Amino acid sequence: MKTCIWITIAGLAVCQAVMAETSGGNAAERFEEARKLLHGKPGADDKTRVFELMMSAAREGHADAAGGVGYCYMTGTGIAKDPAKAVEWFRKGAELGSAKAQLNFARYLLGTLDAMPKRTESGIDEKDREEGIRWLKESAEQGLTEAEASLGAYLYNGHHGFARDRTEAEKWLLRAAKAGDANSQNTLGVLYDRGIPEPNGKLRTDAGKAEAWYRKAALQDHRKAQANLGKFLDPFSKDESRRVEALAWTMLARDNREPTAEKRMIEIGTAVDPTDMQRAAVRARELRIELIKAQIAKKNGGQ
User: Fold this and answer.
1) In angstroms, what CA-CA distances link 192 with 16, 36, 37, 205, 208?
2) Is the pLDDT of residue 272 over 50?
3) What is the pTM for the complete model shown?
């Protein structure tokens, strides 16, 4: 028999009922159950269960579960949306050591958490910005790929309170890129393509690394990387295979509605050898099949 004791203090009534219904298993087991439900396209009943399990585990000090409660409040998963409570629980999770909660709390403070009410850079005070930078760094130091990618991107662009530092950006982008983050792979390609400023004032470029990282991202169907790879390989190269490959990747990017690729295909269309264009069309179809196979393999591997 279940007993619920309703207390009028905000939020506590929910927590009392939750604790009564989710007493089975330890906090880690309950969090894992909630995580599996969340990633399995949950229905309404499952979403309620996710929140109950997250809250129960969080109340016992489980760091990731605390961040999970924040996620539930942010997205309305099993409970009404409440941005203020989402921030409160992200902070709790961050302080308990959850890398994901640290990232979400940092993004909130920096105004980059998309699911939360928008905060413009001009509306963020310096204290919040400094705290956001600190939490983002802590999350990245724990090895969370999303945090590494964000930190690398902010350092590369000099955004959200970070001074532009391409050398430091390289360090974090490499970590995220090696973990498979396509955005970081593409940005690394740009970094090695255009060059990293050295203390002597020169730019350190690496054509081999630029091509390799563009290609890794392009093979994940990253449309900007496909456009960058096509431009890098050069559709007017003296090497026929490079010309055909360049055109093929540019075609794929164009078909993916990448703006620079769409414009480039119009500009070079009449200047390219028709034979190269025909071969590139065949190669583009082959690449598209490779991409589809890779996506299927990735999906099956994640199940």
Assistant:
1) 55, 39, 41, 5, 9
2) yes
3) 0.85
